[in-house]
Structure formats: structure tokens, C-alpha cells
């Protein structure tokens, strides 16, 4: 389900995505929904591939991971569900027993109800099974969770929730088959209760639930195992999101050449707030300069000129108090790219300044976003024509202010929500968080996974806005500029370490 720019809820059969060729051909960046993976399995079977052979490879891979990761385990406990995920578990249990490991199997449902490959896997598994609710953890157990996997779309049954609680209480290691049971593979949300895995083995491609929070946290280490389905079949179902990495945008990063000078590298302008709120703008400006913009100016109210001037060196300063002063500043076409919002203040001035920039490139952040909460359609209409020039960088609260109906639609994943917002706003939307999603109006979306928790600190978002602005100023397309900025922001956070501050973060930006 997605919410169109008209505000109407609609349900497309499948969201398409137009990745750059390097991304589309790289399985490391694909994300397949559980439904898409189901279509892959069906297509593989239609092509003549033996489906039980695929299950055999999957289960063997899980067993190999268990033996490799937990050689000290006294007993492997395989928890099997009623579908193909359970079938993978029965294969893994047989492989573990064949390797000489003590192995116990507990099943959720009557095995007589198993069908297809899962029934075959059960039939050839030599280990007697017990009911799932009879499992009592022992010290030295290592758990293989093969109950539901990625296809679950409803809260887990009480019997499963009880086992999850017992395993968690005993602090036993868990290997999840495909996805920890209790996680929604499409959204990454917990459906009542979910295992917290030390390691997850999935097959052919990641699912959104592996990278969206809290799913990413609950998956532990993630292993993507190739069970032999042709990549052309998997590729045909990839989308609507992928993983953010340099493969998506590196070829478009600005590359200074010998004849380059500062005016060719673009001019970024960052609007400052009043004298008591100037720091955020300076962080953005410094980050834009670090990202490669040739010139950076802070457009400041006169009452904040002294506060800004005392802290600036390479960044220039220009008094811009009102709409008349802004209009005069815009007479120079080289003033092409702007950051508005950090520390600026919420209200009519922010709205008026943003709308005055409708034919320029604009990163709208923080107060700039909140200023349009009562009527965001005015902003969206202003940037609706021509190339994508607007980049919105909301965190969860700001997103809900601009797109309340999207945020309230609980069936949508974060990828779905970002795509719906981008389509409606005619903007690139950077939906921030530990699982930041970058979405474009044309249907492209990337999920970022390299940001450390230490980035959750005051001023970090101002730095990100500045990096985006710096790349936009150099002519990088809006979607790629935003994706590159988010990735480099995450890398800078890792380089700065656990005690990072926003000021120190800027010194670790390396493009």
C-alpha cells in the first residue's frame, strides 16, 4: 500500500525501481520483500529447478553456520514451524545429527499437516520430534529458529511467544533461518514477540526486515547464502528499495580537475537563525565546505552578524534580514543552492524564504520543515515542476508533521512511507533514523545501514544537511547527493568514535 501525491490510498501490484546499472547488477544491494521472494521461488520451480534441492542447500547452510559459530554447544535445538522455513529446519537438524552433534527437534504443529518440500524434509529427518511448547532450555543449548522466517504477517501464537520468552530468559544463542521468527520481513517490525538472534542465515537476497529497525538489531550477524537460484530470476523481483552504498552514486560524485576553481565548485548558502541560535547554521556551513562546495556563505540576520563573524574563517557572511534582502541576493544566479532550517526558527519567515527559493536547490531541514506543518501542499506545489530541486530531511517527528496520514498508516514499511512522501512532495526525502531511507519521486529508494549509534547527538543532523547542500552545490543530482551524504555522514560518525560531537564530526568527512 502506498499513498499517492493526490492523497488517495492505493495498492499497486509491485513498486518498481530504476536503479543505476551498477546497483541493479549487484546482488549485495538487492532487497526483496517476502512476497517477491515467494515469486522468485515459484519462478525457479517453473524453470525446472528441483525445489527440494534448494531446501536441502538452505538447511545444510544453516547447519554449517551453527557448527562454525557455536562449536562449544552441548546440544543444538531446532525449532520447526509448519511451512518451508520449518522444512529448512528439518534439513538442518538431519545435517547436524549426521555431523555427530547432539540434536533435538521441537515442532509447532502436527507434522501430518506439512505439505510439499517441508513434508519431504520431515520424512527424511531421522530425529524424533516433540511439541514446541514442551521445550525447556538447558545450559549449553544453541537454538536454530526455523519456525516462521520472513513470511509472517500476523502476531506470533502464544506458544511461540512463550518459547521466545524462555529462550531470551535463558540467554541462549539463536541462529535464525531467513529471519528471526516474530519479525515482519517486509517492515522489520516485531509482531508480538520475536527472537533476538546472534546470527541470521537468509537466502539469495536480503529482505527489508533485515535492514529496517528494529529488525536489523534483532538479526545479529547476517549471512546471505546463494542456494543456486539464477540471479536473473532474483534480479527481476528486486525493489523497491536497495542498500545505500557507493555503487549507487560514486560515479556522480564531483571530481575536481586541474582547471577547476572555486566558482566552478558551486556556491552554498546557509541561513542563520537569530543571535541566540547561530551554531546550527555554522555546523551546516562548515560541513558544506568540507563536502567540496567552492564557496559557502552564511546569510545572517543583522542582529546575528557579530555572533557569526566571531566564529567564521573560510565561510563568508552576508546580511539577509528580510524578503527584500533575499530577493537582492538571488539576483546573482551563482547563488544556486541553499540550506534552510537549522536553528532558523519556525514561522512565516521560514515559509516565505523557502518559497522564494522555488527555482533553486534547497535542503529543507529542522525548523524549515516544521514551518510547513499546517499546509505542506504549498511547499510541494512550489517545487513540483522541472528537475528535483528540493531535499527534505525529516526525523520521525518532523515526518509526521508533513505527512501525518502516511505516518499513521501502520501497514507501510519505512521504505513505503519515504516513497509515498517523495511522490507527494516532488522532493527527495531523507527519512532519518538508525535506518535512514533516502527516497526519490521517481520511485528509487535506498536504506542506509552504516550509521553508528553515536550519531544520535545534537548537531549531527545539521552536519548532514550541510553535506547534502555541499554536494548539490557542485551539481550532483538530488537523489545521489542525498544518498552519498547520508553514507559519508555515517562513515564520518564511525571515524569520530563513540564520544563524537557535531563539531568533531565535520573533521572526519572525507569525500
UniProtKB/TrEMBL annotation:
<feature type="binding site">
    <location>
        <position position="85"/>
    </location>
    <ligand>
        <name>K(+)</name>
    </ligand>
</feature>
<feature type="binding site">
    <location>
        <position position="395"/>
    </location>
    <ligand>
        <name>(6S)-NADPHX</name>
    </ligand>
</feature>
<dbReference type="Pfam" id="PF01256">
    <property type="entry name" value="Carb_kinase"/>
</dbReference>
<dbReference type="GO" id="GO:0110051">
    <property type="term" value="P:metabolite repair"/>
</dbReference>
<feature type="binding site">
    <location>
        <begin position="432"/>
        <end position="436"/>
    </location>
    <ligand>
        <name>AMP</name>
    </ligand>
</feature>
<feature type="binding site">
    <location>
        <begin position="84"/>
        <end position="88"/>
    </location>
    <ligand>
        <name>(6S)-NADPHX</name>
    </ligand>
</feature>
<keyword id="KW-0456">Lyase</keyword>
<feature type="binding site">
    <location>
        <position position="181"/>
    </location>
    <ligand>
        <name>K(+)</name>
    </ligand>
</feature>
<dbReference type="GO" id="GO:0005524">
    <property type="term" value="F:ATP binding"/>
</dbReference>
<dbReference type="InterPro" id="IPR029056">
    <property type="entry name" value="Ribokinase-like"/>
</dbReference>
<keyword id="KW-0413">Isomerase</keyword>
<keyword id="KW-0067">ATP-binding</keyword>
<feature type="binding site">
    <location>
        <position position="280"/>
    </location>
    <ligand>
        <name>(6S)-NADPHX</name>
    </ligand>
</feature>
<dbReference type="GO" id="GO:0046872">
    <property type="term" value="F:metal ion binding"/>
</dbReference>
<dbReference type="GO" id="GO:0052855">
    <property type="term" value="F:ADP-dependent NAD(P)H-hydrate dehydratase activity"/>
</dbReference>
<feature type="binding site">
    <location>
        <position position="178"/>
    </location>
    <ligand>
        <name>(6S)-NADPHX</name>
    </ligand>
</feature>
<feature type="domain" description="YjeF C-terminal">
    <location>
        <begin position="245"/>
        <end position="511"/>
    </location>
</feature>
<dbReference type="InterPro" id="IPR030677">
    <property type="entry name" value="Nnr"/>
</dbReference>
<dbReference type="GO" id="GO:0046496">
    <property type="term" value="P:nicotinamide nucleotide metabolic process"/>
</dbReference>
<keyword id="KW-0521">NADP</keyword>
<comment type="similarity">
    <text>Belongs to the NnrE/AIBP family.</text>
</comment>
<keyword id="KW-0630">Potassium</keyword>
<dbReference type="InterPro" id="IPR004443">
    <property type="entry name" value="YjeF_N_dom"/>
</dbReference>
<comment type="subunit">
    <text>Homotetramer.</text>
</comment>
<feature type="binding site">
    <location>
        <begin position="149"/>
        <end position="155"/>
    </location>
    <ligand>
        <name>(6S)-NADPHX</name>
    </ligand>
</feature>
<dbReference type="InterPro" id="IPR036652">
    <property type="entry name" value="YjeF_N_dom_sf"/>
</dbReference>
<keyword id="KW-0511">Multifunctional enzyme</keyword>
<dbReference type="GO" id="GO:0052856">
    <property type="term" value="F:NAD(P)HX epimerase activity"/>
</dbReference>
<protein>
    <recommendedName>
        <fullName>Bifunctional NAD(P)H-hydrate repair enzyme</fullName>
        <ecNumber>4.2.1.136</ecNumber>
        <ecNumber>5.1.99.6</ecNumber>
    </recommendedName>
</protein>
<feature type="binding site">
    <location>
        <position position="145"/>
    </location>
    <ligand>
        <name>K(+)</name>
    </ligand>
</feature>
<keyword id="KW-0547">Nucleotide-binding</keyword>
<comment type="similarity">
    <text>In the C-terminal section; belongs to the NnrD/CARKD family.</text>
</comment>
<keyword id="KW-0520">NAD</keyword>
<dbReference type="InterPro" id="IPR017953">
    <property type="entry name" value="Carbohydrate_kinase_pred_CS"/>
</dbReference>
<feature type="binding site">
    <location>
        <position position="462"/>
    </location>
    <ligand>
        <name>(6S)-NADPHX</name>
    </ligand>
</feature>
<feature type="binding site">
    <location>
        <position position="343"/>
    </location>
    <ligand>
        <name>(6S)-NADPHX</name>
    </ligand>
</feature>
<comment type="function">
    <text>Catalyzes the dehydration of the S-form of NAD(P)HX at the expense of ADP, which is converted to AMP. Together with NAD(P)HX epimerase, which catalyzes the epimerization of the S- and R-forms, the enzyme allows the repair of both epimers of NAD(P)HX, a damaged form of NAD(P)H that is a result of enzymatic or heat-dependent hydration.</text>
</comment>
<dbReference type="Pfam" id="PF03853">
    <property type="entry name" value="YjeF_N"/>
</dbReference>
<feature type="binding site">
    <location>
        <position position="461"/>
    </location>
    <ligand>
        <name>AMP</name>
    </ligand>
</feature>
<comment type="function">
    <text>Catalyzes the epimerization of the S- and R-forms of NAD(P)HX, a damaged form of NAD(P)H that is a result of enzymatic or heat-dependent hydration. This is a prerequisite for the S-specific NAD(P)H-hydrate dehydratase to allow the repair of both epimers of NAD(P)HX.</text>
</comment>
<keyword id="KW-0479">Metal-binding</keyword>
<feature type="domain" description="YjeF N-terminal">
    <location>
        <begin position="37"/>
        <end position="235"/>
    </location>
</feature>
